Known about the structure:
Layout: E1 5-10, E2 16-21, H1 29-35, H2 39-47, E3 50-51, E4 53-55, H3 57-71, E5 78-81, E6 84-87, E7 97-99, H4 102-106, E8 112-117, E9 122-127, H5 128-132
Parallel strand pairs: 1-8, 2-3
Antiparallel strand pairs: 1-2, 2-7, 4-6, 5-6, 8-9
Amino acid sequence: MSTRAIVGVTQKDGSFLGAWQWSDGGTILDILNRKFNTDETVKELLSVGAWQIMLGPRQWKEYCDYINKQYGWPIPEHITVNNVYFKKESYCANKPTVYKNIIDAANEDINYVYVYDRVNYKWKKYDAWKILQGKYQL
Length: 138
């Protein structure tokens, strides 16, 4: 089972600009806060559009070594942004999606929404189901 997430930022007009993470979306808060903590790096992140997994350099090497040794697969198609590796697939969008608001984004088939706080330069992780139930003040 995949743990999907939308990673994004609320725009001045209230819309939400987001990108998709298809797998392991529950574990990316640390890398977001370490590597994507300025308006410029967040913009670069969102420009990736959609990806399957996001990994740091050591984890990317371990992942590539594993799939090569275990299955004989070559290094997957990927993009590198701010020394973070994004595994791409042919079906992955190459631009972010504009949602009406965070609730609209949470209504996608996802588990989490990561929201960049432009004031404190930090990411926050929200459970999509709890957003839809009105459990958060957003």
